[in-house]
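Entry for the shared binder. Reason: the reviewer on the internal report wants the predicted structure included alongside the sequence.
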Amino acid sequence: MKDVYRQCASAVIFRLVDGQLQVLLVHKPRKKDAWQLPQGGVEEGESVEEAAIRELKEETDLDASVIKKSSVMYQYHFPNSYRRFRPDNVCGQQIHFVYSELISDPDSVHVDNVEINDYVWADLKNVNKYIKRKEYREIVDKLIAGRVQ
């Protein structure tokens, strides 16, 4: 069976506070690479845009609408130590990013304390304080540079 990548969608959300642009990051309860943009798997029959909005709602309880899908995509392989526990031929993930605009109040974030245990509205100049993995931080930097004003 040929290896395939799990398709994922991520919502990129910005807000402006006191003249500072901020991006929403969520925290997974794990030791490494815990901070990320809201994201999750694309379900069968779902578009990337639909998945990004659904995952944002599931992880933060925020509602948003799609502005546009980014051309930026992040693909990576699962480590062998993780793959050996998977009963399928999924070798990694391809994350597609969707710029979105909040419909909900940005201060009404609620996380489930299971899948996501924290969140932050990070000033753009402080994103590297949260996102440590170089490859992923470079992707987020590209998304920030290409943001929709």
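Summary line for the report: Strands lie at 4-17, 20-27, 35-36, 39-41, 64-77, 90-102, 118-123.
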